[in-house]
Specification:
Blueprint: H1 2-35, E1 43-50, E2 61-64, E3 67-77, E4 85-92, E5 104-109, E6 116-120, E7 133-137, H2 142-165, H3 169-176, H4 178-199, H5 203-210, H6 212-234, H7 237-244, H8 246-268, H9 271-278, H10 280-302, H11 305-312, H12 314-336
Parallel strand pairs: 1-7, 2-6, 5-7
Antiparallel strand pairs: 1-4, 2-3, 3-4, 5-6
């Protein structure tokens, strides 16, 4: 009897020790998981209101500046019909000075597609958030938008690949159309031939690439151009003076203004030249006058009329010259002896 009772008491003590150990282990695991690694540290609660928690649940880790310092204790809809989700977090009190009214809570992830977490920016400005106070929170989950964009991009890429597979577009035709493929092959062969010529010393481009003398000549030309531009910038020569001399620039501007004024008058039909450009009646009269002048010149060339004969017949020209000579001699004699040719007779009744 005593031996049986002793065994029962020993078993009872072992059982109590095991239960106490399991309780301590569970409490330590819960404390470590929810307090950022401090099993018996002091904690306090903060809250945040979010539009969409994207699968965040109780027990998710909370990080401040990338360091895990707490856990999410409750995720539920906020009251008052605001449509927001209230996230309650338990944080280690040692980070209270870093979680201020300037901090912001955002949804994070332990991996690109892993468990959700809450990231709080560390801030030293502003008063610390008190126990049970609210943190500012981001409106959207950046990973959710990233996944949505990735899904949209994947769908768009799928549509592009389907169009290519159907032979649409240039790449689709290149994959499906044998003629286009042969043309592209021909173009690539020609391009390869051009590159081969560039590598050789034949042709100007090949010489430019491979001939050092031609390269030096091109470099000398570039240096000469640099010298010319340097002279222009320093105001040397006529072009340099044009770019530097303000008086020349003013004269050129005045000349341009006058040219603009003249062209404006021509466009408005002012003056003879303007009427010639704009007035159709004046243009027709001028054309008629020129036609008559052409006819007169044509008659003169053919020897019609006195002027035409004077231009074309040598005999008439010589006779006219002789008559002028005799007239000049007669005038000379009259000047020398006017009484010989001028006689005045007076008679009285």
């Amino acid at each position: 009897m005593n031996k049986s009772k002793a065994l029962t008491w020993s078993e009872l003590r072992v059982g109590v020790v095991v239960l106490v150990s399991l309780f301590i282990l569970a409490f330590a695991i819960r404390s470590i998981g929810g307090g950022g690694g401090r099993a018996f540290g002091a904690h306090y609660q903060v809250k945040a209101l979010m539009n969409d928690v994207n699968g965040l649940k109780s027990g998710s880790p909370v990080r401040v500046g990338g360091v895990e310092v707490g856990t999410v204790t409750r995720v539920d809809f906020a009251g008052g019909g605001s449509g927001m989700v209230e996230v309650t977090m338990r944080l280690d009190r040692r980070v209270k000075d870093r979680v201020t009214t300037e901090s912001e809570a955002t949804l994070g992830s332990l991996g690109l597609l892993g468990e959700k977490a809450v990231d709080i920016t560390s801030a030293t400005l502003g008063p610390p958030v008190e126990d049970g106070g609210y943190l500012a929170a981001a409106a959207e989950d950046p990973f959710k938008g990233l996944l949505t964009d990735a899904s949209s991009s994947t769908a768009h890429l799928r549509r592009i690949l389907s169009r290519m597979d159907a032979g649409e577009g240039l790449i689709g035709k290149a994959l499906r159309d044998e003629e286009l493929y042969e043309r592209m092959t021909d173009v690539s062969l020609r391009l390869q031939g051009v590159l081969g010529k560039l590598e050789s010393d034949q042709g100007p481009l090949g010489r430019l690439v491979n001939d050092p003398e031609m390269s030096r000549g091109l470099a000398a030309s570039v240096k000469a151009m640099e010298r010319v531009t340097g002279r222009l910038e320093s105001g040397q020569g006529a072009l340099g003076a044009l770019t530097r001399d303000e008086e020349v620039a003013r004269d050129l501007k005045s000349l341009t203004s006058r040219l603009n004024e003249v062209t404006g008058r021509l466009q408005r039909g002012e003056g003879a030249a303007g009427k010639l450009l704009q007035d159709e009646a004046f243009s027709r009269r001028l054309d008629s006058t020129l036609s008559h002048l052409d006819a007169v010149l044509d008659r003169l060339e053919r020897g019609h009329g006195t002027a035409g004969k004077l231009l074309q017949e040598d005999e008439l020209h010589e006779n006219l010259n002789a008559a002028f000579k005799e007239l000049r001699s007669l005038l000379a004699e009259i000047k020398s002896d006017p009484r010989k040719y001028l006689r005045v007779k007076l008679s009285l009744f």
